[in-house]
Specification:
single chain, 496 residues, mainly alpha, 2 domains, globular, disordered N terminus, cell membrane, Undecaprenyl-diphospho-oligosaccharide flippase, Poly_Biosynth_Transport, transmembrane, transmembrane helix
Amino acid sequence: MTQQSKKSVAHRLLGHAGIYAMGNILRQLAGFLMLPIYTRYLTPADYGVVGLMIFAISLMELVFGARLYWAIPKYYFDTKDKKLQASLVSTAMILTGAISAAAAIAMVFLRQPISKGLYGTPEFASIVGFFSVLLLTQSLEEYALVYLRLQQRPWFYITVSFFRLAIQLGLNVWFVVSLEMGAMGVAVSSMISSSIFALLLLAYTLRQVGWHFNGAIAEKMIRFCWPLWLGGFAGLYIGSANRYYLRIFTSLDDIGLFELAVKFSTIITVLIWGPFATYWQVERFNYYRQGNAESIFQNVFYFISTLMVVAAIGISIFAGPVIRIMAAPTFYRASEAVPFLAFGAVFGSLVIFSNFSFLAKEKTGWISRNNYLTAAVVTVLYLSLIPMAGHVGAAMALMLAQAVQFFVVHRASRSVYDMGISLRPLVGMLFISAVVCFLANVVLTSDSLLHDLAVKTLLYAVACGIILLPHWRNAETRRLLHELAPRFFPKHATDI
């Protein structure tokens, strides 16, 4: 392969990465775009019911879902045999589909005791029943989308994601606004939209790969994935168990306020970290293999951490006015938790960045150990802060635990593979962030919305100037910025 053809392949792959990232964004936008409606037509308790149910479904997926997402791409490209590749995809879908269907049926029959255990009352048994269907449909959707990526069909992928978003929004408006079904409306619309696309994508995928089950392949994929399932428990617990602790120590209202605050913090992971990670997860290994890549890792770390911190400051100080504009007064207190969750998202993303040292040296056991250490830390923090401060305490606990995890992982990773990253610039940015957020959200707040927005805008502009100016003066940072932009946004569709 010539050097020119190698560059063409690399450019096409990076273009695909940008399109897939946009598709992922579209698939996750429904919850955020629905906020003005949810916060007007749902009570905080309704929103809490939905949030707690989503946590339960995520837990059930880990326990009973037999998710094999990680194994499919690995073994798919281990062979050139098209029949074996088709058998791999078909086997994964059949195995997971059968187990997920059994789990979903069990949830339907046990919906009343599950509601009692989850909410403390059987009142929400019907909602449990509707959401249980997602155990099956979401897995089928995900497998089909993985197959589209294996086929390198990015535009089909983004088209599916767009129509999925449109139908989800339309059904939500119909059931929540027109029929005024509250949390039940969210459950019904989620079930219908997921079922529609699961069936359509299942039909497409099975038409391509056929209906085959290979026991040897199934055993191989399970052996590969089960350690990742164990690690997934800790990750889910760290980020989502707060909902259950909130239900025990406070109320469904607090869960609803926490869920609204989380939606703002996910802007960082969905719009910034997600697209970056889609590109970086491949390129980081290329740089590592070249040797002497420490300066590259250092500059990339400064670039993405600066971008996320600047976004976190904006989200932290403008969430209050935005919630006041779009939501009912019962949701206003959600803004108090946003700063902690926003910076928690920054720390969580930087943990993933730092974990590369363990991946590069095949020391993946460190990642699971660090996750379980963080789970222990966050448990102590949840039990200490949630009874005292409700949804704000949950947000504080999560941020502190993720900060501890980041600094522990950073220190441990240096002994495995030192990327040469100094934390001084990050600590400086965090100090500026704390000062600006305190001034904007505590000292200089105003009952006048326009005055409040003006003050926050001025403070944000000053903070951005202080943080960004040193980076903009750095020639290497400017070069990196010019290099990354066209890789995510190709000038011509024919480039990809």
